[in-house]
Amino acid sequence: MRIDVVSLFPEFIDQCAAFGVTGRAGERGLLSLHGWNPRDYAEGNYRRVDDRPFGGGPGMVMLIDPLRAAIRAARAAAPMPARVIYMSPQGAPLTQAKVRELAAMDRLILLCGRYEGVDERLIRAEVDEELSIGDYVLSGGELAAAVVVDAVARLQDGALNDAESAAQDSFEADGLLDCPHYTRPVEHELGGVPEVLMSGNHAHIARWRRMQSLGRTWLRRPDLIDEAALSPADRRLLDE
Ligand code: ADE
């Protein structure tokens, strides 16, 4: 998969390619990341990329032309068609289902805004979709784009090691929060480890983990329970 990021700070995106699962996906040839700076496509001595908003008000708005030229350069850099996504708090919420959809694509172009936003005409003409990573405002789309890159990279076939993908499956499969995890030592000044995890009884362990996942989701994120893939046995546990 190829991801192009249009940003005034393309070095930010280079950092994604340097570490962890995203870095490994790059090394394994599963993901290639490319930054495009609209300033490189701006005219004049000052290479201006923004201007004051019509109608007044604080902040600056990003100009159409440098952004459009950067998006077009990114599009032209590879033959596969790309979905262009503008990262913004006005976008649809990013969910794991959306991440799965994006991870299956050959190519994405992520557009990061700065200042107060981007000229609306550019969004209408060039953008296929707007995505938000949450109901808060960041000073730019770069962190949001990094979130998309990370979430999509780890779903590429072969990006995760076996142990990591097993952990991922439980969340992916049923939409519940994960259960608590423990490792050595058994006795610690911070407390012990639940007996059942050391019982060697796999059915009991699986049931305990399921109850923990259900309980945590019910307490912390009741909104997820309605959407989760629950068995009749799960429903009975929740009704108790
Ligand atoms: N840019 C600024 N805030 C954002 C958010 N919450 N999600 C995506 N992009 C953003």
Automatic annotation (TrEMBL):
Annotated residues for binding of S-adenosyl-L-methionine: 113, 133-138
Lineage start: Bacteria, Pseudomonadati, Pseudomonadota, Gammaproteobacteria, Lysobacterales
Predominant location: cytoplasm
UniProt protein name: tRNA (guanine-N(1)-)-methyltransferase
A molecular-function term among this protein's GO annotations: tRNA (guanine(37)-N1)-methyltransferase activity
Superkingdom of origin: Bacteria
Function: Specifically methylates guanosine-37 in various tRNAs.
NCBIfam families, per the entry: PRK00026.1, trmD
